[in-house]
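tl;dr need the bound structure. longer version: we got a ligand (pyridoxal-5'-phosphate) that a collaborator sent over and nobodys looked at where it sits. i said id run it. heres the input, straight from their email, havent touched it
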Amino acid sequence: MNRTVYLNGCYLPESEASISIFDRGFLMADAVYEVTPVLSGNLIELDGHLQRLQLSLDALELPNPLAISDWRQLHRQLVDINHLVDGLIYLQVTRGAAADRDFIFPDSTHTSPTVVAFTQSKPGLANNPLAETGMKIISLDDLRWGRCDIKTTQLLYPALAKRLARKAGADDAWLVRDGTITEGTSNNAYILKDGKLITRYTENAILSGVTRATVLRLAAEAGIPIEERPFTLQEALSADEAFLTSASTFIMPVVEINGQPIGTGKPGPQTRHLRARYLAACRASMS
Ligand code: PLP
């Protein structure tokens, strides 16, 4: 594959894009990122992702290297140049390459951030067969750091957790801290019980999902009562339905946790309804 990627103001073939070995993103995961879905060539919820990017940058005292309009144009340009139909745009901002490796943040007037963005083609992104069968989840201790609200590139524990899930014959893992489920490795976690939608409130222990915000709005519009509170693994196991959300999966039913079926063991009606509503809202935003 030879995509055209974006690096520090230039569009160039991926094989020609290179960054310094002193880049703090590489040395220290001193970097934040965003992932925006693309359906039929349209960017979905881009403004929500750009707003959260600003929050992540602010939390790490990283100046935003681009204006919102430039970010929008960059995303549009990558879709167009690469003829992306369905897929994802990944962007990453690092604190850049200082003269030497040092824990201390370099002076931002002398070290400029590194900005990278690229496309990932995912034909049929909205028709993932897992939406029909549902996902199998295992639970694992949440051993991540305490600022999961910042979307940093420190993704080793989520990657390890996904590996452990695969080894256990599951699709993914939900993480448990102090007796309650925080979120998934790369998604927000929800259960439905007696018609009520339960999901953790946003705080440092979870990423405030862009998909989550829209799903909660659509659920409220559909008259579904919402409880934003932590829930236990036991509650999840005895839920009527469970699902997860993220920019790359939208809404995915969860049908099994630690080998135990949730509800009927099949994607539940409320989850299916919410997924259909979400995708309809995406399509409506394109026209
Ligand atoms: N939680 C974590 C840890 C994530 O990595 C992600 C997405 O990557 C999410 C939640 C879902 O966020 P969004 O819906 O904005 O993709």
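gonna send this back to them w/ a short note. The chain has two domains: 4-125, 130-284.
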